[in-house]
Specification:
The protein has 56 residues and is of the alpha+beta class. It has helices at residues 14-18, 43-47; strands at residues 3-5, 24-26, 31-33, 53-55. Helix content is 18%, strand content 21%. The chain has a two-stranded antiparallel sheet. A two-stranded antiparallel ribbon has the order 2-3. The chain starts with a strand and ends with a strand.
Length: 56
Amino acid sequence: MSYKINDACIACGACAAECPVGAITEGDGKYEINPDECIECGACAGVCPVEAPVQD
């Protein structure tokens, strides 16, 4: 089950910097996770200050 970023995202970029496969990109007002690239490692969730990445 891949991760997605909810509306709590503050667009700080911490998740994108931590993603080992580059599945996270900056979107319109928040970051987005490509579900086809996500390897479900949870690294993004571990560094997010607002707990925006959640399992889909």
